[in-house]
Amino acid sequence: MENQITIANEVIALDESGRVSLNVLHKLSGTGKTKQPNNWLRLESTQELIAEIQSSDLRTGSSDRCSDLCIAPLVTINGGNNRGTYAHELLAISYAGWISPRFQLQVNQAFLDSKKAPQHTQVQTKTLVDTQEYIELLRFKIEKLENRKPRKAPKPLTIQEKSTIKQLNQQGIHYRNIAKKLNRSYSAVRAVIREH
Q: What Gene3D superfamilies does this protein's entry cite (predicted)?
């Protein structure tokens, strides 16, 4: 396992044994307190999964597999800068699935990507994604600015418009309705009414 994985363009450092912080995963998921790691760890199915990882059946086999599974699959650090719950990648994926199927797919992909590509390639990819997102954002902003109607100073009211405003006001029509009818601002219509 590499020293870090990338999920949603966030680089997550792994501990010295390659475990990932469930607390960081929870934070990245953007879910509330109901999806905190402690709630997941209380589930019977979670305890069964931990027991299965710790079982001798999974620890036998190739030395590569043992080196990965012979570490404690779950560690909780209560103090210091690195406090939190750290879990083996199989547990981290299961936790992500408990949060949501979509988040599980993101975590699965992050672990697959970390095994495929060297870290410098991931950093370059992250930069390209960020650059591409930035370019798309700029294009969107430019399009919005181009489509925005230019603000011009309003033309002064003509004598006829002022006369119409006064007549409509005398008929009891509200100034807002007068403004809509004449396609003028509320403040311009109010100013004429106040003059009168």
A: Homeodomain-like
Rounded Cα–Cα distance for residues 185 and 164 (Å) = 15
Q: Which helix (H) or strand (E) holds 127?
A: helix 119-147
CB atoms inside a 10 Å sphere around CB 12: 19
Residue pair 85/75 in contact by the 8 Å Cβ criterion: yes
Written as one string, the DSSP assignment of 144-169 is HHHHSPPP-PPPPPPHHHHHHHHHHH
Torsion (CA) 51, 56, 58, 62 in degrees, nearest 10: 150
For the segment 15-44, what is each residue's pLDDT rounded down to a tens digit? Answer: 888 888 888 888 888 888 899 989 999 999
Cα 61 to Cα 95: distance, rounded to the nearest angstrom: 26
- For the stretch 153-196, pLDDT in tens is 678 889 999 999 999 999 999 989 999 999 888 889 999 999 87
DSSP-derived secondary structure for 85-107: EEE-HHHHHHHHHHH-HHHHHHH
Question: Mean of the pLDDT values across residues 138-153?
Answer: 75
d(CA 73, CA 89): 8
Global confidence as pTM: 0.53
User: Which one-letter amino acid corresponds to residue 98?
Assistant: W
